Amino acid sequence: MLESFLKGVVIVFMRRSASLFGIILDRCDVIEKMNIKENIAGLQDFYILSIKAPLGIFRRPFYFRETIEQMDYMGTGSVFIVFLVSLFIGMALSLQISAELSKLGLKMYTGKIVGVSIIREIGPVSIALSFAGRVGSGMASEIGSMVLGHQVDIMRVHGVNPLKKLVTPRVVSAIFMLPVLTVIGDAVSLFGGYYISVFVSHQSASFYWSQIRDIMDFKNLFSGILKPFMFGYLIACISCYMGLSTKGGARGLRRATTSAVVLSTIMIIISDFMMTRILLFVLGETV
Amino acid sequence: MIEFRDVSLSYGYNVVLDKLNFKAQFHEKIAILGASGEGKTTILRLILGLVRPDEGKIFIDGQDITELSESELRDVRMKFSIVFQEGALFDSMNVYENVAFCLREYTRYPEDKIEKRVRELLNRLGIEDAVYLMPEELSGGMQRRVAIARSLAGCDPEMMLYDEATTGLDPLTADNICNLIKELSTGEPPDRMGFIIVTHKVTDAAKVAGRFIYIRKGNIIFDGDLVSLKKTEDAELRSFINELYFEYNETGR
Predict the structure, then answer these.
(1) B89 vs A contacts (CB less than 8 Å)
(2) Residue A27 domain-assigned?
(3) Residues of chain A neighbouring B68 (CB-CB closer than 8 A)
(4) Does domain B2-250 match CATH 3.40.50.12780?
(5) Do residue A34 and residue B12 have CB atoms under 8 angstroms apart?
(6) Torsion angles phi and psi, residue B7, rounded to 5
(7) Which of A180, B161, B214, B244 could form a disulfide with B82 if both were Cys (CB 3.0 to 4.6 A apart)?
(8) B84/A159 CB distance under 8 A
(9) Per-residue pLDDT for A28 more than 70?
């Protein structure tokens, strides 16, 4: 009796809310209403793209050549920028930490703090941000110009699914290449930290490396290597979506490219926080 | 047959098509005329299901395509092929790869068979020497030819759709493209492959088409043959086709 009464109340409440929402929508300015509709439709399209794109590798046709090309572009093409960014981040971090720890007389522990920071946080995030800047913008502008040049339309007319042909190879490549770049970048950062610790801060080289070895445990490595997979997936999905939704000529292309980089950057930082929180909990580490 | 029934489409506040109605047979040679931004290209995109109308229905061979999914639209799209303005060639592929694109995607032909078909088409269109050139190395006319070759390679379309096929070309090259369009649509109806050409170049349209549709503010203002087009009473349309009177007077026709 009580249960059916409560159900009734809930149904009436939901109906009232729905009709109220409908009235609000009706009374809204036409543009706002259209924007709400467009945003909801856009969000739906984004979810569809981000689910279907990685699943594309399990269904024919397979685009191996495109995937290899993208891996080359994303991986080999990004090595230099990753090297530069990582080297200077490692050196700057080592300098700063050495300076602070010197005040406490603990500068011999620079390696430990640099190592944990680089492997768990700064390495994955900084390389993902560089990757978003270089590869994300490239993906959005390339796909965007294909949309504006009707090349995507031609694919659709000839029965080729642009999601499979353009998005799946990019998402798969980003998922695999960003972790590889992160490992390279982490190694370079640690060498940058080593250079500053040993040659500028005059610490023991063997002690620095022994501390790095100490922090190379499962928890740290797992945290550091899991994040780039998620970042790669997010960057590729956001950038491809922005590229595919390009409209409005050169200005539209600029908007799409900027949005791809800005949204990727924001999502990297938010997801990094969320993943750090989850990983700490899962790995049983107390805060 | 293509049928538009009360088709409306807007982009934001801009009403592109307003309850548009028309019917066309696949073997017809139709020119859709109108000023820039009047929704001519949108009509082609609607026929192919690349955009969906806000209101109204579009029937292709009696099938309403407005509710079809992307995979269901594939069979409908096979009836057509389109040549976009500027050709829309894949700029990362050379001419050979562009023309072979549909064959590679659609068929499981061995490479030698694909090559034979590509070379045959390039020969037919007179661009066999450009086989390994990249799109940026081609002139505007050659790009259109490659685009036509590509559109013919993969399937056997019942109707070609040309989006501003002669725009931006010099008169001689535009004339060549017009001749090519005519050549591809020889034969007697209903077996003939028809076309819809969207253009604002009235003289080019007059060279190839038999039926003319003039669009203004999302509505069809005129639908008829060349003779009745030239006799139109509509002042704006007369002004639009002014070039046509001039050319015909100059040539003494």
Answers:
(1) 151
(2) no
(3) none
(4) no
(5) yes
(6) -80, 125
(7) B161
(8) no
(9) no
